[in-house]
Amino acid sequence: MVIKGEKYHLVEVESYLPKSTSGQAGFDTSLHVACPEELKKEYPVGTRFLIKGKLNDLKGGGKFIYSSYQWTYEVIFLGNGPVIED
């Protein structure tokens, strides 16, 4: 569900294992990110990306940062953790 009035921003995000999180000023570090699957399946944990995203809210599911799978992103730091496999 879209949060009325929320605008898109360039956001630096980092892939992580579920036991730890990281974030940046302006967004709660506990927020998850909905973004292209390739960010977690093709890059190691700890990789940082610059994405276009905005705060969103699932009905009863809590807030998260949303970025379309169709949008480009930039890898700004390549992590050294494992690649996440589903």
Short synopsis of the structure:
The protein has 86 residues and is mostly beta strands.
Structure explained in plain terms:
- The chain is mostly beta strands.
- The chain has one domain.
- It has 1 helix and 5 strands.
- Strand 3 and strand 4 form a beta hairpin.
- It comes from Shivajiella indica.
- This is Single-stranded DNA-binding protein.
Instruction: Report the mean per-residue pLDDT as an integer.
Output: 80
Radius of gyration: 13 Å
Overall, the morphology is: globular
Low-confidence stretches: none
Considering DSSP H and I runs of 4 or more, what fraction of the residues is helical? under 10%
User: Which structural class best describes the helix and strand composition?
Assistant: mainly beta
Protein name: Single-stranded DNA-binding protein
Organism: Shivajiella indica
Please write out the topology.
Blueprint: E1 9-14, E2 32-34, H1 38-41, E3 48-58, E4 62-66, E5 74-77
Tags for this model:
single chain, 86 residues, mainly beta, 5 strands, globular, Single-stranded DNA-binding protein
